[in-house]
């Protein structure tokens, strides 16, 4: 039987990391973990409960009340994010959460909380995890690390089209500003900022199709797995 590995996929917001991670996981029969969803669910809890982002004891107390789970949804064929047993998959993608999540994800207590759970999910290997610090902090010895990038204008346009079905009132301007804001905070924060791991393979998908991107990553994975 082929060996199971950890595949770490990092990159900027809305550059197609999750799409790639999901497709790879399906093809290899691996578990897919969207770590951004975990930070989004934590941010949602903080917003709902007016948790101060600057008061460490409130943050620590709030984290003790948070239980995160992924559950497979047979209708969408994807895993949904659950916050304390409530399906929050849709709500965590809304602008109210998107506009605050980077601030929450920059908090060291929040990162320690999420990273510990992510590392536990990788014990059995056979996972594809996407985020910002997977190849640098969560799994620095992952067998395959991919750093996905794309032109910021193309990313904003793709994200805008994606959000239109669920949030028809949203404008391209709003989406562009939110992406710029998140990229800036994610890459300049003090704790585990977004950066490319030295041994990551860079995949710029600005001008290639989803299928081409998938084939490229699958070839890399197969080289390592030995299929
Ligand atoms: O991938 P996403 O856009 O759903 O991520 C939401 C936010 O969480 C984004 O601001 C970056 C942050 N994040 C992070 O800091 N570390 C991760 N491993 C994943 C996401």
Describe this structure in words.
- With 227 residues, this protein is α/β, with parallel strands linked by helices.
- It has a single domain (6-225), classed as P-loop containing nucleotide triphosphate hydrolases (Rossmann fold).
- The protein is 48% helix and 17% strand.
- The chain contains ten helices and eight strands.
- The chain has helices at residues 17-28, 35-48, 56-64, 95-98, 101-105, 108-121, 134-138, 152-164, 172-188, 210-225; strands at 6-11, 31-34, 68-73, 78-83, 86-87, 127-131, 144-149, 201-204.
- The chain has a five-stranded parallel sheet with strand order 2-6-1-7-8. Strands 3-4-5 form a three-stranded antiparallel sheet, with helices on one face.
- Strand 4 (78-83) and strand 5 form a beta hairpin.
- Helix 1 (17-28) packs across helix 10 (210-225) and helix 2 (35-48) packs across helix 6 (108-121).
- The longest helix is centred in the last third of the chain and has 17 residues, at 172-188.
- The chain is globular.
- It starts with 5 loop residues before the first strand and ends with a helix.
- The structure holds 2'-deoxycytidine-5'-monophosphate (DC).
- Residues 13, 35-36, 39-40, 101-102, 105, 131-134, 182, 186 line the site of 2'-deoxycytidine-5'-monophosphate.
């Amino acid at each position: 039987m082929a060996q199971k590995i950890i595949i770490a996929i990092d990159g900027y917001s809305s550059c197609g990391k999750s799409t790639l991670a999901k497709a790879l996981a399906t093809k290899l029969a691996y578990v897919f973990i969207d770590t951004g969803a975990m930070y989004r669910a934590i941010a949602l809890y903080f917003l709902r409960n007016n948790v101060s982002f600057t008061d460490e004891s409130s943050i620590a107390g709030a984290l003790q009340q948070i239980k995160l789970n992924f559950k497979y949804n047979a209708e969408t064929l994807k895993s949904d994010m659950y916050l304390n047993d409530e399906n929050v998959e849709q709500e965590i993608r809304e602008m109210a959460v998107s506009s605050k999540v980077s601030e929450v994800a920059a908090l060291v207590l929040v990162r320690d909380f999420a990273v510990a759970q992510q590392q536990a999910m990788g014990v059995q290997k056979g996972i594809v995890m996407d985020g910002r610090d997977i190849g640098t902090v969560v799994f620095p010895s992952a067998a395959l690390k991919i750093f996905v990038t794309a032109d910021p204008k193309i990313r904003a346009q793709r994200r805008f089209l994606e959000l239109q079905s669920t949030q028809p009132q949203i404008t391209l301007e709003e989406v562009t500003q939110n992406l710029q804001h998140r990229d800036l905070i994610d890459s300049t924060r003090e704790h585990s900022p977004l950066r490319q791991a030295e041994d990551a393979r860079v995949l710029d998908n600005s001008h290639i199709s989803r299928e081409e991107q998938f084939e490229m990553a699958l070839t890399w994975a197969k080289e390592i797995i030995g299929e």
